[in-house]
Design goal:
By secondary structure, the chain is α/β, with parallel strands linked by helices. 48% of the residues lie in helices and 17% in strands. It has two domains: 166 residues, 3-Layer(aba) Sandwich (D-Maltodextrin-Binding Protein, domain 2), CATH 3.40.190; 115 residues, D-Maltodextrin-Binding Protein, domain 2, CATH 3.40.190.10.
């Protein structure tokens, strides 16, 4: 019997396929090596850390605690830069357009990451395409609070007073497109309220306006409200989470206080420019998770009214996508738009 030899064409094709496999393996090995090298050598200079909210805001408080710890863990200064304009989108855009080399990261929140695509006609970045998630840093409810002179001590009384005087009262928010803004818009829609929106550039001035009586109410994270609660100039009525907040267990939820099914949490996390080497993303994720687990850090964040979170980059990315999908119809229903 005569053996059948492979044709020259089949042999050439096989050699080409083998060459492609070898090239692919070499590329994978090269990428792995470069990733490992990036992790080993990074950082070699100071890292810029963009805060998407103003000084003394909950974002800023959290970010500076993280920067303080990251400096020692990474062996380089962490340079905090506050870019609070345009509801956090200015700072988030600054991160998105930065070089993806691990030397720029940002601490952003619901607004610029999940809400902004549905609020702005011309958003200069795509949160899903231009940013890479690193880690969820904290998640907590907003607190519905009123000026101490407002004639309501419970949610039921609040609803009755506002309904009796449509358009009379103003509510402050920490900025257009923030969780503070949209949570109140959702309450207005769910409870049939007419309240005028007065946006501020960050939580400190918004909370101060309620304390001074320039506006009568707001929803904001506990960090912003706590100093005014302690001074007695502001009264807290409820939280916006589905269940009572462990750090303020005395406050009922809106859902149990006459607004069934209401839930609107505020969250934030670290992002970097898309294309940042995976090894750097993983290193940052490990370091921040470790920091958030430190008892002293947890105590400091709890004192500020923040609940530390943590987790994987994938889990954070999934949260951003899920929140965007959940709030898109709410934003459309309320008609909230920002020029």
């Amino acid at each position: 019997m005569t053996a059948t030899l492979p044709s020259a064409g089949r042999g050439a094709s096989g050699r080409r396929a083998a060459a492609k496999r070898i090239a692919a393996l070499a590329l994978a090995a090269g990428l792995a090596a470069s990733g490992a090298a990036a992790q080993e050598s990074w950082p070699q200079r100071p890292v810029r850390f963009v805060m998407t909210a103003p000084p003394a805001s909950s974002i800023d408080v959290l970010g500076r605690i993280l920067a303080e710890r990251l400096k020692d863990r990474l062996g380089q200064p962490i340079v905090v830069e506050n870019i609070p304009a345009a509801g956090g989108t200015a700072g988030t855009h600054a991160v998105a357009k930065a070089a993806p080399d691990g030397y720029t990261m940002g601490l952003a929140f619901n607004g610029p990451l999940a809400f902004a695509p549905y609020l702005y006609e011309r958003l200069p970045y795509d949160p899903q395409k231009d940013l890479a998630p690193v880690v969820l840093t904290s998640s907590q409810p907003n607190v519905l609070a009123v000026n101490a002179g407002f004639p309501a001590a419970t949610v039921a009384e609040f609803l009755a007073v506002v309904r009796a005087h449509p358009g009379k009262y103003n509510y402050a928010s920490v900025g257009n497109g923030s969780s503070s803004h949209l949570a109140m818009e959702r309450l207005k829609s769910a409870a049939g309220l007419e309240i005028v929106h007065v946006p501020y550039n960050g939580a400190p001035p918004a909370a101060a306006s309620v304390a001074a009586g320039d506006t009568q109410m707001l929803m904001a994270v506990p960090t912003a409200i706590n100093p005014h609660l302690k001074s007695g100039r502001v009264r807290a009525l409820a939280v916006t989470s589905a269940a009572r907040f462990a750090l303020m267990p005395e406050l009922p939820t809106l859902a149990e206080s006459g607004v069934p099914g209401f839930e609107a949490t505020a969250w934030n996390g670290i992002v970097v420019p898309a294309g940042t080497p995976r090894a750097i993303v993983e290193r940052l994720n490990r370091e921040v998770n470790a920091i958030l687990a430190e008892p002293e850090v947890r105590a400091r964040l709890h004192a500020a009214g923040l609940e530390p979170a943590g987790g994987t980059p994938e889990a954070f990315g999934q949260l951003v996508r899920a929140e965007a999908a959940r709030w898109a119809p709410v934003i459309r229903a309320t008609g909230a738009k920002i020029d």
